[in-house]
Amino acid sequence: MKIFNSYTNQLETFVPRHQGIVSMYVCGPTVYNYIHIGNARPVVVFDTVRRYFESQGMVVKFASNFTDVDDKIIQKAKEEGVDEKTISEKYINAFLKDVASLNSRTDYIKPKVTEYMPKIVDYIQGLITIGYAYEIEGDVYFRVSKLKEYGQLSNRKLDDLISGSRIEINEKKESPLDFTLWKKTEEGIHWHTNFSDGRPGWHTECVAMIDDIFGEEIDIHGGGTDLMFPHHENEIAQSLAKNHHTVAHYWMHNGRLNLEGEKMSKSTGNVVLVKDLNVNKLAYRMFLLSTQYRSPLNYSPEALDVFDKEWQKVQKSVEQLYRLLDLNDQLKDNVVVNASDLVDINNYFIESMEADFNTPNALTALNQLMKAINSKLRQKPDFEWLNQAYALTSKFLFILGLDFNLTKLSIEEKSLIKQWEQARINKDFELADQLRQLLVSKGLI
RNA sequence: GGACCCAUAGCCAAGUGGCAAGGCAAGGGACUGCAACUCCCUGAUCGUUGGUUCAAAUCCGACUGGGUCCUCCA
Fold it and tell me: How far, in Å, CA of A36 to CA of A91, rounded?
């Protein structure tokens, strides 16, 4: 398995710290609104990464946070005249619902800032103790100049950062690059600490959570490229200071999703929400996987329509295959795939995924498989081959997160389908058309 | 202003030194009781321009055109 490591800026062979176990952390949402289709990209990308490792027999320990303390949440709470918890709970639930609709797993560790406050405060206190942070008038800042590695991840030099800085000069800070760990405030939800009454900056939560959940370095840290600087750079800075390592062995960053060529973000209002997508959500997932995760991806309704059709084709082929096997009582479990054409397709699929999760090529393999199945469905049934093809299809769909439920036919349904087939053989087309209409209305063909 | 990325057929998109995958659209054909579905065939001097090499979409330089980050953002 090769993974492009953003920290070293090169393709590297993936070796987990502990054999057979993969630890992953992905930066999660700030919960003040419904997620848009761009927010869904890292969710789907890293869910697919997780699914692939699991399909290879590895145990994946996966965590992703909820930022439930933030200026925007406080502002929203004020606007709506409710407390912050009401807002964050509402949008955490909405997030999980949207994630599930994209067939991304929700069974992962979900730490919240509000539940991590003592550990975040301890983390900050620890940084002060070792001289990597300082407190001024109740605010606490990280002392960036003390860390010569700063800028490695985002490939920046300290001098460039200072000269190119558009950050307003904060007189209190020692250097404009120093970032806030704790901010003194009495507005909105806040906590009492030795430094002041206030709340944390947003860079400490992830490292404090990773420290607590994983105890040591993790294998993979994921997130969008836009988080590289400053957020991930600052995570690394804090971790280097406190733990002398860079949090993760592999840093993975997914590219942005643009809307009709324009940047999409909640703050500009230029958004399409996941819950408002009017196509099958799995078609949207397929669209997201149709481009390599590191490349930018441009969304347009027309582009999505293509995958809506693609998805329906796949769905139809898989259903037909399943129905045929079911109708003939030929469905089997634990099928070994050894037909040479299927083995070739499987090899291509696996090679693609092993090459830094090349999902576009994995989708090509899925396409080849569908084509092979469609051809075989027109021939005299070879149930051995068809069962193998079904097993392979199920595997591909699981890994890509495009799996969907198929239910076995009842005896009555089987009988109906057989009657329809017989009517056609008998050239009783009036009866055949009636039966076909009935079967279509039941969603069986 | 500083840092960085991208440019492959009408559209989407793989390929990162050895004759340019795949999908959509388009055209042709096959199958079919009618439908729908499906299958087969047809398309590229890889943005422009210099260079390195036996060999370049792929490496290096310049140019042009897009985009990202430096501020909240996934």
Answer: 12
Nucleotide nearest to A364 (CA to C1'): B22
Classify domain A2-277 at the CATH superfamily level: HUPs (3.40.50.620)
pLDDT (tens digit per residue) in A56-86: 999 999 999 999 999 999 999 999 999 999 9
CA of A334 to C1' of B3 (A): 53
Q: Classify domain A301-400 by CATH architecture.
A: Up-down Bundle (1.20)
CA/C1' separation A6–B47 (Å): 28
Nucleotide lying nearest to A203, CA to C1' measure? B72
A264: pLDDT strictly greater than 90: no
Burial A272-311 (b: 16+ CB within 10 A, else e): bbbeebebbbbbbbbbbbbbbbeeebebeeeebeebbebb
Instruction: Name the nt closest to A231 by C-alpha to C1'.
Output: B73
Chain B positions under 7 Å from a protein CB? 1-4, 6, 11-15, 21-25, 31, 33-35, 37-40, 66-74
**Residue A171 pLDDT:** 64
Residue A141: per-residue pLDDT: 93
Rounded, the Å distance between the CA of A155 and C1' of B54 is: 38
Burial annotation A36-68 (CB, 10 A radius, 16+ → b, else e): bbbbbbbbbbbbbbbbbbbeeeeebbbbbbbbb
- Mind listing the pLDDT tens digit for each residue in A204-242? 999 999 999 999 899 999 999 989 989 999 999 999 999
Domain boundaries, chain A: 2-277, 301-400, 411-441
What residues have CB less than 8 Å from A438, skipping those under 6 apart? A416
pLDDT tens, position by position, A112-132: 999 999 999 999 999 999 999
